[in-house]
Amino acid sequence: MRLELRMKYCETVYRRYRNVSKESKARILDELCQVCGYNRKYAIWKLNRLRDKEKAKTPSKRGRSRKYGHEVLLIVEEVWKKSGYPWSVRLKEILRLWLPWINKHYQVTAEVEEKLLEISPSTMDRHLKLLKNKLKRRIYGRTKPGTLLRHKIPVKTDHWDVEQPGYLEADLVSHSGESGYGEFMHSLNFTDIFSQWVETQAVMGKGQEGILEAFGKISRRLPFRILGIDSDNGSEFINHHLWNYCEERGIQFTRSRPYKKDDNAHIEQKNWTHVRKLMGWDRYDSPQALVAMNDLYEKELPLYMNLFQPSVKLLKTERKGSRKNRLYSRPLTPLDRLLASEHIDQSQKEELIAIRERLDPFELAETVDQKLQQIWEKAHYRYKPPKIKIEARKEQQELSIEEKETLEDIASIFGITVYVRTHKEGKLVAINHG
Predict the structure, then answer these.
(1) What pLDDT is attached to residue 413?
(2) What's the pTM?
(3) In the chain, where the domains are located
(4) Among 230, 295, 334, 274, which Cα is nearest to 139's?
(5) Beta bridge partners of 318
(6) DSSP states of 313-340
(7) Cα 72–78–81 angle (5° rounding)?
(8) Cα 146 to chain center, whole Å?
(9) What CATH number should be reported for the domain whose range is 167-377?
């Protein structure tokens, strides 16, 4: 008997074998061994394989029921979107911090409120996994090292270990789009090491005086005095304007090692969350975009990020073999870290608390989204030169060799395609550059 026929016969025998008594099974086995020529133990093994295969097709039910219903997970998803897609550990703290406004907007019951407070970060990660796959981004940088004053400004290679606000890391994020040609906008970003308070200002170009003016505006908005700044080696920072400004005000000025982004790890992370994640990688080079971007940087965005967005700080890193375990602090907002500091006046603390109680994070998030839409509409994409059309003279049947060579030179110099309409055939002839 062929193998195919023996397999079909075994499947037919198994349908009778699985539902009969022990005595009947013995007779069926005798029949199977006689027809197929199997050994008795081999015949039993073949039938057991069919039994295991049938069980594998039947999915087993989970022993534990779902704890968090659709209403709870829907609120988690909405808060995750409104808060800028944070890490699940930060999202758990956001749920606690935003709870009064969650009750206001979603009218949650006491049972739902209790589940929102006890849901774990891993549960939120499992629920948000599919949505996270749609938010893949990449980050780029465009900072060129400068050469001025390097012998005067010390290099700082160790991590900031400060117990008070005022020590900042600075960096510049470019908005050049696909081309670095011409003048375009940059976002000047400052991050306080102690509190993680972030302030940003948009500037046109990266001129030294423009950067200094933006630095002055940021210093007036900060709720504490600047004690020190640490930057990279770009010429926008390493210059006499900023050096003299810091010397006159007693501000410590240090710089990182060239090509070592880890020396400015705090600001590099904030460049993503506070600038690149919001503005994207389009080109912004118009005065209208500058005004719109600074309107967001100076008003709603710092309130939203510093008063309602908790962040974690790296405490230490433990190495176990080839793996690293990073231990983080409890998620806190920059405002909460300032409130715990003894170096901030009580009147300043009370003013900041009153501002947070007066604001609604959901309304702030909506306003930020609306202004971002207006900013994105002002993005300027790469310029494409127009096509040039030149008509030959009526009395001329076709272009001369000299005229054709001249047009080829024009096309090559300006990188364009020249179209010439000849009266001989009455159609356009393309003269490409190169």
Answers:
(1) 57
(2) 0.66
(3) 3-57, 70-132, 167-377, 388-431
(4) 274
(5) 325
(6) -EEEEEEETTEEEEEEPPPB-HHHHHHT
(7) 140
(8) 28
(9) 3.30.420.10
